[in-house]
Amino acid sequence: MRMRIVFFVVLFFAATGFILTVPAFSQNKKNQASYPVEGIYSDLRFCSETGDVEGMRVIILSSGANDYHVVAQLASGGMPEPVLVKADRKGNKIMFTIPVDLPGFPMETFSGTVFSNGLSLKSKNYKMGLKRLKCNIDQ
User: Fold this and answer.
1) Are 115 and 92 in contact (CB under 8 A)?
2) Which fold has domain 39-133?
3) What ranges do the domains of the chain cover?
C-alpha cells in the first residue's frame, strides 16, 4: 500500500510539472524563428571603375534573453564607421533606428524580416534585400 501511495505522488508531481512546463515552452517557440536571426547580412558592392562601395551590412547580435543589437553600415561611395544600436525582435521580425547624429547616416528606422537565407529591410528612404553570409561563429 505504501508503494502505491509513493507511486501516485511521484506520478502526480511528474504530470503537474509537465503540464506547467509545456505552456512555457510553447509560448517561447511562438516568438522565435525556426532558424537563428543572429548573423551577418550584406548587399555591399564594390565598383572597380570608381572605387565606390554601395549597399548595407547588418550584423544582428544577441546579448542575452530577448536583448538584441545591430551593427550597421550604410555605404554610399565610401565605407562609414559601423554603428551599434539596440534592436527589437519579435519572432523573425527585427526593428532598429540609426540616430541622426552619426556621420554618414540619416536618421532611419529600419524594420525587417529575417529569412533563412537573408534579411529584407525597409525604411522611409530605403528598401533592400541582404544576403545571409556564411560564417564560422555558429558552431
Assistant:
1) yes
2) Lipocalin (2.40.128)
3) 1-30, 39-133
- Look at residue 29 and tell me whether its pLDDT is greater than 70: no
Closest-CA residue to 42 (of 20, 65, 70): 70
Q: How far is CA 64 from CA 49, 61, 101, in A?
A: 44, 9, 28
Q: How far apart are CA 124 and CA 108, in angstroms?
A: 7
- What was the pLDDT predicted at 60? 96
Quick check: 109 and 95 in contact, CB under 8 A?
Answer: yes
Torsion over CA: 9, 13, 18, 23 (sign): positive
Distance CA 115, CA 11 (A): 42
For residues 5 and 37, the model is more confident at: 37
Q: What is the pLDDT of residues 68-122, one digit of tens each?
A: 999 998 888 888 888 899 999 999 999 999 886 655 556 889 999 999 999 999 9
Please, which residues bridge with residue 6 across strands?
Answer: none
Residue 31 grid cell: 516568438
From CA 111, how far away is CA 126, in angstroms rounded?
10
DSSP 32: B
